[in-house]
């Protein structure tokens, strides 16, 4: 039986971030031994992803940042674009391959961290820790005993919620035959795409060169689309809306992010915790996760270094989650017109302040000021709804 202080299950953004923080902890602070359990190649390993977040100045993972922007643009269904300068913030883009390469370099140099390729079958509490039952890359069974286990794997099913929408998307990394992109600004929400019967849809463009960009189609709705419908939606956006002309598709990415007011338990045993999206790091109203999981893993690493019980903290405040629940209900009920609501917010609230609000870094009076730019009647009716709505399991597609 192998033994370690900390077992990190899953080597996606959350698992790698926690292992990275523990690998770089000062030995004098009581650096724990860590085993990072990475799924073998196959369906359990996270697919390639692009993560975005915003912060001021230099960041911990800047060496892996593909591109960043201080200008953002939102396009309403009609009328002029809304441009905003978010300085001193930068909107940063990291591709998962680059992130993994950066973190792997530091993990390889740390004597405290060991990486194992294994499929985790069960995690169970035992006195003084937990047992992780697994199979290695060759299918042989094994057991790892750890004082603490941090599980970052996606949930098998979502907890019961009053409202659950899915943020689902399909993107193309493209290279165009002519210069077609404004590298100074990221197109955050482009509502000039056809809107679905329920929910909302928008385009998203992250330019990394005059002729290269991630071009994406995104929906907030209850059900994902079929592969052919995603392809048709991105093609329409690229050809009919952006009018990019001749292009090559270099790679693609597809994803589904739950947007839910369900409580996400961060502890499943005395020594077993969840981190990342499974531990509530995703902001329900936006789907952004990277910044929230960084707050979680930073707090966990600090607690371990100080000899405290390392319970992951909520990634978002109770006030933020309550406001998100109202917004999700307003969108799901159809009371709020999504494109009009988001366009109005970005037009009437300075973008830097709105990004801080979306990251939960504003005070109560600032939150109220932002809320006054939302449609007050639909929001109030949706807030009243929440007191009577039961929590139901999500009917997964």
UniProtKB/TrEMBL annotation:
The species this protein was found in: Streptomyces calvus
Gene3D superfamilies: FAD/NAD(P)-binding domain
InterPro entries hit by this protein: FAD/NAD-bd_sf
Entry protein name: Lycopene cyclase
Source species, domain of life: Bacteria
């Amino acid at each position: 039986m192998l033994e370690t202080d900390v077992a990190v299950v899953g080597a996606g953004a959350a698992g790698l971030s926690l292992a990275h923080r523990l690998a770089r902890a000062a030995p004098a602070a009581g650096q724990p031994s860590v085993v990072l359990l990475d799924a073998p190649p196959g369906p359990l390993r996270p697919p390639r992803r692009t993560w975005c977040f915003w912060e001021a100045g230099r960041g911990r993972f800047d060496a892996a940042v593909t591109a960043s922007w201080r200008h953002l643009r939102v396009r309403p269904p009609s009328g002029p674009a809304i441009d905003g300068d978010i300085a001193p913030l930068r909107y940063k883009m990291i591709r998962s391959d680059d992130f993994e390469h950066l973190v792997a370099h530091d993990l390889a140099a740390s004597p405290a961290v060991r990486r194992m390729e294994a499929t985790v079958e069960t995690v169970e509490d035992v006195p003084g820790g937990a047992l992780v039952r697994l199979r290695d890359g060759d299918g042989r069974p094994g057991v790892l005993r750890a004082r603490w286990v941090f599980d970052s794997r996606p949930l098998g099913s979502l907890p019961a919620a009053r409202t659950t929408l899915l943020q689902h998307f399909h993107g193309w990394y493209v290279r165009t035959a002519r210069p077609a992109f404004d590298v100074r600004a990221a197109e955050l929400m482009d509502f000039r795409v056809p809107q679905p019967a329920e929910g909302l849809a928008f385009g998203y463009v992250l330019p990394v060169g005059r002729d290269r960009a991630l071009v994406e189609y995104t929906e907030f709705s209850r059900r994902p689309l079929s592969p052919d419908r995603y392809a048709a939606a991105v093609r329409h956006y690229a050809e009919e809306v952006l009018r990019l002309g001749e292009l090559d598709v270099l790679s693609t990415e597809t994803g589904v992010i739950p947007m839910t007011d369900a409580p996400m338990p961060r502890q499943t045993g005395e020594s077993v915790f969840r981190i990342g999206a499974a531990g509530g790091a995703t902001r329900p109203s936006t789907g952004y996760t990277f910044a929230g999981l960084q707050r979680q893993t930073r707090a966990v690493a600090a607690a371990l270094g100080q000899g405290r019980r390392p319970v992951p903290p909520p990634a978002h405040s109770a006030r933020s989650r309550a406001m998100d629940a109202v917004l999700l209900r307003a969108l799901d009920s159809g009371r709020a017109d999504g494109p009009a609501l988001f366009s109005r917010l970005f037009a009437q609230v300075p973008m830097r302040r709105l990004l801080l609000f979306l990251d939960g870094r504003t005070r109560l009076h600032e939150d109220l000021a932002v809320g006054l730019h939302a449609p007050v009647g639909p929001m109030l009716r949706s807030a009243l709804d929440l007191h009577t709505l039961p929590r139901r399991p999500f009917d997964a597609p």
